[in-house]
Fold this protein.
Amino acid sequence: MLSILLNWGYMLITLFCMGFAFSRFSAKFLNYCFKRLDTILFAGFAIAACYAQIFSLFYRVNVEANIIMILFCAAAIMLWHRQMFDFLRTAFRISAGRKILIGVLFVAWCYFTSRGYMVPDTDLYHAQSIRWIEEYGVVKGLGNLHCRFAYNSALFALSALYSMKFLLGHSMHAVNGLMAFTLCLELLNLGKCFQRRKMLLSDFARCAAVYYLTLISDEIVAPSSDYATMLVLFFIIIKWLDCLENPSEGNEIAPYSLLCVMGVFALTLKLTAGLILILLIKPAFMLLRRKKWKEIVCYLTMGLLVAVPWISRTVIISGWLLYPFPALDLFSFDWKMTNVDEIKKDALLIKMWAKDVQDSEQYYAGPQQWFPHWFAGLSATEKLIILGDVLSCVVFAGMGIRTFLKKKWEELDTLLVFLTLTCSYLYWQFTAPMFRYGYAYTLLLVTLLVGRLLKDTKILCRLAYCFIILYGIYKLWGCVGFVCSSYLSQCYIWQEDYGSYDLTVNNIDGVEIYTTNYLSGYDYFPACDVSVLQKIELRGNGLKDGFRLK
C-alpha cells in the first residue's frame, strides 16, 4: 500500500497539471472552464494516455518519458501556480465530514488496489503488453508473437508510463484503482438528492456506478482495460446527464463536445466502446446549426490527436487498421498478421467463451441456441439485470416512437442517451456478453429506465431513497467482508505482483524467448505460446526489429 501511495501521489500531481493545462486551453479557445477536480483528473488520464502512446511510437515508455512529462508539469506549475492554488482551495472548500469521507475512500481504494483477484487475461497478455511498452515502446509485428498483443489498448501505454519500475524496481499497476477513486469524487454528488428531496436521472446513473465499484473492488488490482473502459463510460454518461439537467450548461456546446472527445478516449481503451460516440449527434448538430467552423476544426483535431496514436500502434503491432477486423485490409507490410483465418478464429473464441458456447455450430445457430444456455448460467442478480435491460429496450423504443409522433422535441436529448445505451447494450449482448465487458451498458440501461419512470413520483422516489441507503449498507458490508478475508495478505508495502509461472526458454535467431502453454505473467520476458515459436522469425537482429511470419 505504501508503494501505491507514492505512485498515486505522483500520478495525482502530474494528472492534475496536465488536466489543468488543458482546462486553460479550453477556457481560452473554447470559452469553457472546468469547474470540478474529477473533470480535471479524467482529462489528465486522457492526455497522459495520448502522450504515452505518442512517445511509444518513437521510444520506450520508461524513465525518459517521465522526465519529459515532469518538465511539462513543472512548466505548467510555474505558469499557472496561482490559478492552480485558487482552484484547489475552492475544490476543497467542503465540509469536514466530506473531507473525512474522501480520505476514507482514498485509503479504501488504495487497499483494494494493493491486493485481490487478477483476471486471467492479465497474466495471459496484459502484463507482457505493458512490459513490451516499458522496454521497447512499440514493436513491428508484435501480434505475430502473441495474437492478443494486437488487442491494443491505451491503458497499457498509460500503465507503462506510471509503472515506476525504474524507481521502485517493481512494475506498478495502479491506474485502474486511482481512476475508480476519481470516479468516487463525482459520485459523492449523489448526496445532493437527499438535500433537494428529488432524484434526477444523473443520480440514478451514479447509483449504477456505485454498484459497479462495489463489484470490482476485489479485482481492481488487475490492469485490465475492461475496468478502465467501464469507468470512463460511467463518467461520460453521468456528466452528460448533469449537463442536460443543469440550466447553466444545458445549451453550451463545449461540454458535450469535450465529452465526445472523452468518448474517443474510451474507444482507444477498448474498441467495442465505440458506440458511445452516437452521442456525437447532439454537439455535431449544435455546431453545424450555429456554423461554428473553427470549433468544429478544433474538436475534430482533438479527436484525431486521441485516436491517431492508438490507430498507429495497432497498425505497427498487427499490420491492420483495426484489429480484429480483417475486412479493412489497407496495408501490405512484411510484419502483417496475414493469417486471416487465425484472426477470425481468435475473435470467435472470445465470443464463444463470453457466450458460454462450446462449439462453433451452436454459436452460428443463432441466439435461440446459445442465449437460453447463457442466461441459465447467470446469477439471480444478473438475470434480473438482463430482464430489466430487455424491458428497457422495449420501453425506450416506445418512447422514441411516441416522441416523434407527438413531436415532443424537448425529449430528444434524453432520448439520445437512451438510444446510445440501448445500441451499446444490444451490441454487447449479441457479440460477447461477458458481464465484465459491458457492466456500464447493462447497469445504466436498467437504472435509467427506473429513473425515467420514477422521476415524477414522490412516494416512489422516497422508497428509492430508502432502497439506496439499505442497499448501500449491504454492499459496504460486502467490501468489509473482502477486507476481513484479505488483511493477512502481505501487501502493505508493495502491491500484489503479477503471477509467476514456470516457463521454458527457447532460442529464435539467437534471441532467447520463453514459451508457455497458457499464462506467462510479467517476469519472464519476452514470452509467447509454445505453438507460435515455429511459425515466426525476427525481422532483424534483435527484438526491437519486430517479428513476422515465416
Observations:
- Residues 504-549 form one domain.
- The mean pLDDT is 90.
- The first strand starts at residue 504 and ends at 508.
